[in-house]
Structure formats: structure tokens, C-alpha cells
Amino acid sequence: GAGVSQSPSNKVTEKGKDVELRCDPISGHTALYWYRQRLGQGLEFLIYFQGNSAPDKSGLPSDRFSAERTGESVSTLTIQRTQQEDSAVYLCASSLSWTGTDTQYFGPGTRLTVL
Amino acid sequence: EDQVTQSPEALRLQEGESSSLNCSYTVSGLRGLFWYRQDPGKGPEFLFTLYSAGEEKEKERLKATLTKKESFLHITAPKPEDSATYLCAVRLPNTGNQFYFGTGTSLTVIP
Questions:
Q1: Residue B86's closest chain A neighbor by CA?
Q2: Which of A101, A65, A92, A8 is nearest to B30 (CA)?
Q3: What is chain A's pLDDT, residue by residue, as a tens digit (115 residues)?
């Protein structure tokens, strides 16, 4: 079976432009997470979705960041008016359920570079 | 205040030289401690989950242990293919499904 996939793998953009990152979770996984990983730093929680429940957006760093997920399928993370400090690898993970005890499976990430 | 601290930041071992990586946490009511391996340019790969002090889990040359304040990832007779960054994460109480990750230990095993 396919794992978590993310696209694009790399994205270079100019400061001030909007970007959209995509995550395809493992089929049947109800929970989906977005993380940011800056160079030399640990993973930073951004947001998580569980089925049709309201997402936990408490990790989003500013109102320029937003994410959507339709049901238990694809999720998109949008960053508006990108800044240089947004440069990082954005990782998506999915797990079978929301309990948090289930294993999170990560995608390969999208490397975002803001010039 | 840092919730999760990993040490050392980097570790170089000769092939066959056993060692341990440390993950310490400063919270109570832990709802799971997770170990991941991350290769360059890839997402983290799950290794172990530990839930209670005294618990141990093994996989090939790796063994993870948990106490009330820290976890160790023991690597026995490592091979060059064990070279990677090892991340630990904790799931904290009363934070829904937020996982807090350490900054990782970069392990290099020299042939």
C-alpha cells in the first residue's frame, strides 16, 4: 500500500507570494498532522485534523497559515504572503485514529525556500 | 521551558561500538514517548512507542527504555546503515493530539 505522499517535493517562491502544499494521507487514516521542521530544529506542530471534527489549529504560527482537509482525504496547507522565516521543510503525517497512541506515518516533506 | 531535550546533539561511533542516546522530558502525566529515525531528505520513520516507566522495546540492534524522566535508545554493535538522526517525541496531557519533538541526535557510524 502507498504511504503518505506530499507535493511538491520542493518549492521555491518569492517573498510575498502565496504557496499551497498538498498531503495525501494513507487511505483509511482518520487523523492527519502538519509539522514544520526548520534547519537544525525539531519538528514543530502546526495543526491536526480528525475526521469531520474541528481541527486543532493551536500550532499555526500566524494568520498567514491555514489548512483544509476534506473528510478523511487530501489536506492542503496554505501560506499567504510568504516570509523568509517560513523557509523550512513541511511534513505531513497520518495515523489510523485520533487517540494519539496510533503510529504516525510521515510523508517525505515539502522543502519550501522563500527568497 | 523545553519540554523535550535530546543528547548528545551528534555522535560518531565506530562500527560495532555500542552507545546510548538520551531523551529527557520535563512533564508529568506522559501519554506516550515516541522514537523516530530520520534519514536526510526523508520524513521520520517510526521506531518505538513507550507508555510507562520500566517499559522496554527492541528492534534489531535498537532497544528503547523509559524511566519517569527520560528515555534511552541503546544501539548495540551499530552498522553504517544505522547512521541517521534519531528523534524523540512526547505526547503531553491536556494538549489534545499535540506531539512535542526534540531536536534529535545525529548518529554517524564509521566503517
A1: A42
A2: A101
A3: 589 999 999 999 999 999 999 999 999 888 899 999 998 788 999 998 988 888 889 899 999 999 999 877 899 999 999 999 999 999 999 988 766 566 889 999 999 999 9
